[in-house]
Amino acid sequence: MVAPGAxxxxxxxxxxxxxxxxxxxxxxxxxxxxxxxKGNQVLRLICTSAAAAAAAQRKNVAASGPEKYTxxxxxxxxxxxxIGKRHLANMMGKDPETFxxxxxxxxxxxFLDIQKHEDHMRAQDVSSDxxxxxxxxxxxWLIKEELEEMLVEELSDQDHRxxxxxxxxxxxxxxxxxxxxxxxxxxxxxxxxxxKLLAEPLQYDEQGVAFSTGAGQRKTARATVVLxxxxxxxxxxxxxxxxxxxxVLQHREQLMFPFQFLDRLGxxxxxxxxxxxxxxxxxxxxxxxxxxxxxxxxxENEIEFMRQxxxxxxxxxxxxxxxPGQEGARRKFTWKKR
Length: 338
Known about the structure:
Layout: H1 6-35, H2 38-64, H3 71-91, H4 101-123, E1 139-141, H5 144-151, H6 157-171, H7 180-184, E2 187-189, E3 203-204, E4 210-218, E5 221-229, E6 235-237, E7 240-241, H8 242-245, H9 249-261, E8 268-275, H10 279-294, H11 300-308
Parallel strand pairs: 6-8
Antiparallel strand pairs: 1-2, 3-4, 4-5, 5-8, 6-7
Helix pairs in contact: 1-2, 9-10
């Protein structure tokens, strides 16, 4: 940025140059009078050149002279600088009110270091399109007490929050996978419940068709299923087609939900045996049994998705018992005055 006094100095230089040209023209005119008529032509050329140069200099002074660096212009530049400094402070996670010029210079040096690092990575044929992310499934960030114990230092809630924010910002960078070991130091592994669920190995019948078995319960209903691979979607319950056995649409939807969740509709045949309970509880028992049988046909990550969806968890709800002195579990006898 040019200093405000530069335009004034430039104007002075232009006036001095113009005065020098005039003095030179005057001297040449005197010589031309002594030498003859040819000197007049040289004089006209010099005067014309001097006038053109002076006009061009005046134009440059008007374009970039004192008018450009007025008080309003300088005030506008200062406001834009303060706005940019606030944005830079927010981007670096610092307080804009206490962000000094030294912090600006330090940030600029950090940006230069990042640019040098990227140039170095490109020189090693490492593309910036490498956006492989760190796998954080099955882990969580350390809480404040755990981080204090690890660093042997007391932290405030704000420091802990800022530290987690900076780690999450690292995960958004293109080369974050190179710092996977460092980031995972501040995460704690969680026990994945699906690892405790053991899928039964596939069995094969006489025709070589793979099948799996499963058992489930809901209230007093008990169900066992045999699930065959490479089927057409045929399902029988106690020897009856499930459309006839469960005339209510809600019961059929509950029975078919595990297949719909895993996008396996029409890929398996299933034979169910169910006893006790009513139709709603029987549908729930078959749903749990078929989910357990499907574990043998899917990958480990899909088993975890099934567990999170509640397909592998027994429904603990049961019918509430009747209470003495009242008509049912919650219902009271009708009150009569007499």
